[in-house]
Every structure is written in structure tokens, then in C-alpha cells.
Amino acid sequence: MVSKEYIIPKDVTVEIISNEIIAKKSNNEVRKKLIYNKEIKIEIINEKFKVSSKSDKRKIKAQVGTIIAHTKNIVNGVIEGYTYKMKIIYSHFPVTIKIENNKIMINNFLGERIPRISKIVGSTQVKIEKQDVTITGRNLEEVSQTAANLEQTCRIVGYDKKVFQDGIYITSKND
To answer: How many other CB atoms sit within 10 Å of the CB of residue 165?
Structure first.
């Protein structure tokens, strides 16, 4: 038998509707759909989020731990939110960045004429101040995916990475 618990903070409400976990605090809300085995039982008892299963299989144990981790991330997102800080680094051509709709336009990267485009995921906010990019939001997966999209958009292929170190890189998380 496998069982794990997470104590929900007092000012946060967590609900389970079919296979979706919803965390709320004042006007903030984060939702996460989960796909898990039918043998796993999820319930909220006395301000405790409990995930259990009668099975002792390795995959079931892993899923129980994953569900608890996702719940912690959702609750933390509702309480504090997530912030990723990135730095624009260039040595060859000055790079300019601007936000249009749900996309980040990266102009003049390595002297390219066509701008590189990175997608902003979900309700994530992006701020650009000179060479610093700040990505904030309530959902950890959306914030980290936006940062990863931006980093991957500026990945250099076909050049010596020791010479061409231009790009946009993550410098800190959750400061």
C-alpha cells in the first residue's frame, strides 16, 4: 500500500473535479489536469491532500509522488507565483527583443535578417529591460516552458559554441 499526504495551507482552497486539481487563493486560481491510473485514489480530508493506492507497483508509487509534486507546485503558484530571470548575451551583433501579441520577436540575432520568434505559453507575463528578461506567472509549467522556448529559439547550430556564445540564457529561478 502506498500513501502520501500534503498539508494544504490555511488560506488556500484545493478542489478535485474529476481528473482536474484546482487551487484558489483570493482572486488567483491555477488548474491542472492529471492523467493517472484507476488504482490511485485522491481525496481531501481535514485540510490534507491525500493520494493513496492499494497497489505496491513501482509505476503506481511514481504516479502517487508525481501527483503530490504537481499539487505542491499548483499551491505554491497560487500563493507566490514563479519568476524566471534571463539575460541577453551577444558579442557579434546587437540583439533587440520586443513582444507582439503572444510572441517574442528576436531581431538581428547573429546578424540574421529574419527575426526569430518564440512563443509565450498561457497567461505568462514577459518584461524586457535592456539586457534582462523577466518571465512571471502562476503556473510553473507555463513559465518554465516560455523560458525554455526563448532559450531554444536562440540556440546556435552549425557554429563553434566556444566562439559564438550569443543567446538568451536563464540566470535565476524564483527570486
So the answer is: 14
Strand order in the sheet with 48-53: 2-7, 48-53, 40-45
- What domains lie within the chain, and their CATH numbers? 2-79 (3.90.930.12), 82-173 (3.90.930.12)
d(CA 55, CA 110): 55
Question: Which residues partner with 97 through β-bridges?
Answer: 106
pLDDT per residue over 125-141, tens digit each? 999 999 999 999 999 99
Helix 58-79 to helix 140-153 angle (10° resolution) is 90
* Cα gap 67→50, rounded to integer Å: 10
State the pTM of this model. Answer: 0.87
DSSP three-state, residue 140: helix
CA gap 106, 153 in Å, rounded: 9
